[in-house]
Amino acid sequence: MRVALAALILAASLGAPAAAGEVCNETSFMLDVAKAWRTPSGLAAEGWTRIAPGGCAQIGPGAETDQFLYARSTNAYLGGVREWRGSLEVCVDDTDFAFEGVADCAALGLHSRPFRRLSEAERSRAVLVELDDFGDRAEEAGLQRLLQANGYDIRLIDGFAGRRTRRQVAAFEADYGREFGADRAGLIETLHARALERNNRAGLRVCNDAAEPMAAAYARQQDDGVQVRGWWRIEPGACARLISERIEPGQTHVHVRLLDDRGERLLSGANTPFCVAPGRFINDNPEGCERLGFQLAGFRPVPAPDAETGGVTLRLTGPDFEESGP
After folding, report:
1. Does a structural domain hold residue 223?
2. Which of 79, 136, 292, 299 is the most exposed place for a label (fewest CB within 10 A)?
3. pTM of this prediction?
4. In the listed set 199, 232, 251, which residue is the last one of a domain according to the structure?
5. Are residues 9 and 117 in the same domain?
C-alpha cells in the first residue's frame, strides 16, 4: 500500500506546476492547510502546510488552475478541531502527503475531507478568516488564544495587545524560564508546542496492547443529540485519538472489535446499542438503523475522564474481548 502511495507522490511531484498560490491565515488558530487542483489524471492534492496566525504560505499551483482548499486547526486547542471546509470530498492522509489521481481513499488507507472551491480571485491569494475579522491583528489574537490554551488568564480574544496579555506573556516566560523579547514567532511556536503537549491528554484515546489490529468507534452525547462515528483502525502497539476535545462523565461510549484470525471479537461489557455502518461513517441519528448499510452494535461506557484534562486513555488487550462463538 505504501509503495503504491509513494509512486503516486512521485508522479504528483513530477507533474506539479512550478508557480504556487498564496494562502494567508488571518484567524486566531494555528492551521494545517491542504490544497487540491484538477489535472488530466484527476485531482492532485497536497498537505499539510502549517501556517501560524498572521502568516502566509505558497501552496499548490498558480492562478491559472482550478483549486480547492481545506484547513483545520491543530490539536493545541480545547473544544475540538475547527475546520474551514466546502463540499468536495478529497482524499487526504493524517501526515504530510502529495498525490495525484487518487479516487478510492479506503484502498490506500486514506480518508477524505471536504474542500472548498476557490474563486478566481482567491487562486493567487486565499485568506482564511473567522467571524471575528482580525485582519492584521491575527498574530496577536493567535498569541492570546495560545496563552488561553496553556491555561493562562486570557478572557477575551480580540487581537489587541493590552495589559492583561502582556502580563500573561510575562507569566509564561517566567514559568518557561526564557524571555522572548521581540521574537514573536519563537514565542508563538513555543506556546503552540506546549499547548499540543498539554491538550493531547484531552479527549478519548484507544490504545491497542493486543497482538492483532482493532477497529474502534464512539458514541457521544451532544447538545443536539448523539453522534456515532467510526472507524479507526488501530494496529498492535499503536493508539488512536477518537475525540480531541474534553469529554464529560457519562456522555461517551466506545465500540471496539479485535480483528484476529478467528474473526471479529467484540469488547466485553458493550451492552448499549447504537447504529454503525461497515465502512467509515458519521451517524447523527442513532435510531436510524433502518437506513441502508447500518446495523445495531453494542457500545461500552468509557471510564470517567481525568478532572483536570478531560481525557481518557483506554488500553485494551486480548482478554478485554469476548471469545468468538463456535
Report:
1. yes
2. 292
3. 0.67
4. 199
5. yes
**Cell (9 digits) for 33:** 492547510
Beta-strand runs (E) in the chain? 21-25, 31-39, 42-51, 56-59, 67-73, 83-84, 88-92, 97-100, 111-117, 125-128, 203-208, 214-222, 225-234, 239-243, 252-260, 263-266, 272-276, 281-283, 295-301, 311-316
Q: Which of the listed residues 199, 222, 238 is the one where a domain comes to its end?
A: 199
| Residue 120 phi, psi dihedral angles, 5° rounding | -60, -40
Q: Are residues 14 and 117 in the same domain?
A: yes
**Same domain as 168, residue 104:** no
By DSSP bridging, strand 225-234 and strand 272-276 are: unpaired
DSSP states of 170-197 as a string?
HHHHHHHT---TT-HHHHHHHHHHHHHH
Residues 19 and 71 in one domain: yes
- The closest alpha carbon to 41, from 72, 1, 12, 79, belongs to 12
Can you tell me which residue has the cell 490554551?
A: 149
238 contact partners, CB below 8 Å, separation of at least 6: 207, 208
| pLDDT tops 80 at residue 36 | yes
**DSSP for 38-71?**
EETTEEEEEEEEEE-TT-EEEESS-TTS-EEEEE
Q: Tell me the C-alpha distance between 43 and 171, whole Å.
A: 48
Please state, in angstroms and rounded to a whole number, the distance separating the CA atoms of residues 78 and 202.
Answer: 8
What range does the domain containing 288 cover? 203-320
Do 177 and 63 fall within a single domain? no
Q: 326 lies in a domain?
A: no
Q: Which DSSP letter does residue 132 get?
A: S
Is residue 325 situated within a structural domain? no
The answer to whether residues 212 and 231 belong to one domain is: yes
DSSP state of 284: S
pLDDT at 310: 85
Q: Are residues 215 and 287 in the same domain?
A: yes
Strand 56-59 versus strand 21-25 pairing type:
antiparallel
Return d(Cα 219, Cα 287) in angstroms, integer.
Answer: 12
pLDDT in tens, 118-158: 999 999 999 999 999 999 999 999 999 999 999 899 999 99
Give the chain's domain count. Answer: 3
Same domain, 12 and 123: yes
